[in-house]
Amino acid sequence: MTAVQPHLKARALKSSSRRPAKELCSECGLCDTYYIHYVKTACAFLNQQVAELEAQAHGRSRNLEHPDDWYFGVHQQMVAARKTDPIPGAQWTGIVSSIAIQMLNRGQVEGVVCVQNTDTDRFQPQPILARTPEEILAARVNKPTLSPNLSVLEQIEQSGMKRLLVIGVGCQIQALRAVEQQLGLEKLYVLGTPCVDNVTRAGLQKFLETTSRSPETVVHYEFMQDFRVHFKHEDGSVETVPFFGLKTNQLKDVFAPSCMTCFDYVNSLADLVVGYMGAPFGWQWIVVRNQRGQEMLDLVQDQLETQPVVSQGDRRQAVQQSIPAYDQGVTLPMWAARLMGVVIEKIGPKGLEYARFSIDSHFTRNYLYVKRHYPEKLAAHVPDYAQRIVSQYKLPE
Ligand code: FAD
Ligand code: SF4
């Protein structure tokens, strides 16, 4: 019998130490653990390997002959859904938290990696290895900041857990998949959300202060399908600000450099992805990537109302026009921004076409950013599917 080789370890970095990916680090948490040993291959910003990891996780990588694969990744099924009895205080209707709770209650997993907030700051992330439904529930709602979810990985081995669910965004999941074989697990389930334009805690403060009428009372916010940012305040009121009225010139540097170089908006390596952007307003958008993802969704089917995903309109002109506007930091007067928001909402892209609009706008912006700031990285860092998406547009030099 061959003995199982223990995985290799290296000393975790101190929180104040510069990370191997330097300014591109998204603080995914890997380097806070002894799995930093694998950082050169595992880090999404040092070694882009989406296609290889897709084959490992889903049995195949994206089919580049199929534009739906470019956009949404490997998938078996997409559907719009919402909980018939939403979880109060969740980001949307709480499908993510409900799946995690069911998996724990049914004994499918022994623990769940998720992220709560600290006692003193609702937006400061506090990753945990949850062992009770109450701990999962306390992690509901987005912490719209870079979050070191993988910093709890050492606890998994120490706890002796064999079946685990990890909830996370694309860069965290890419590093997780790269070290999956080293975690000593019998079964790993991965529940992802899309993610884009994330910020450091300081960056978030700047965003709230430049955009909201009352930054200190914001409980959560989302860039919505009606082309407005919706801020929900402590008193339950909702403030909306049109995308086209954002102070782009002041906000240009607010997004983390990692997010300006990211091409994994749709969390390609999760088994199941729960977002909103491919669904009608008020609904969540679900992408089942593989059988494990289907297994997770099945656990909450009886808590959901569903409808097929749809696609309407044509995003291309709006994307092409937004490229120079963003590049030159154009900000419209608020009345014009509101008017443009109303017109675009009436005639603009809906459902999956809205998701494509958002993916195209971010990928073209990020492609230009990488080309200008890291030209030596461009060829290897931009995955083939993203190259195809970007090549549909005319870009400035
Ligand atoms: P809930 O039941 O409220 O659970 C939320 C879960 O998210 C919790 O389990 C928590 O552990 C986890 N979480 C919270 N913050 C973070 C974080 N910073 N990093 C990792 N995990 C976290 N969807 C889109 O369709 N388009 C987008 O552009 C988009 N942008 C997003 C940007 C960010 C930064 C994040 C965190 C999510 C984004 N999403 C986006 C996903 C969407 O906002 C919802 O999170 C998702 O639909 C789940 O909603 P829910 O009510 O089911 O989640
Ligand atoms: Fe380490 Fe993650 Fe930062 Fe890469 S993104 S340097 S893996 S903490």
Briefly note the structural class of the backbone.
Answer: alpha+beta
Total count of helical runs of at least 4 residues: 16
The quaternary state of the protein chains shown equals single chain
Number of strands: 13
**Helix coverage percent:** 25-40%
Q: Cα distance, first to last residue? A: 60 Å
Strand sequence of the main sheet, in spatial order?
A: 3-2-4-5-9-10-1-11
Protein name: Coenzyme F420 hydrogenase
Domain Coenzyme F420 hydrogenase/dehydrogenase beta subunit C-terminal: 162-309
Domain Coenzyme F420 hydrogenase/dehydrogenase beta subunit N-terminal: 78-154
GO molecular function: oxidoreductase activity, acting on CH or CH2 groups, with an iron-sulfur protein as acceptor
Protein described:
The protein has a domain of 219 residues. 35% of the residues lie in helices and 17% in strands. It has an 8-stranded mixed sheet. Strands 6-7-8 form a 3-stranded antiparallel sheet. Flavin-adenine dinucleotide binds next to α4, β2, β4, β6 and β9. This is Coenzyme F420 hydrogenase.
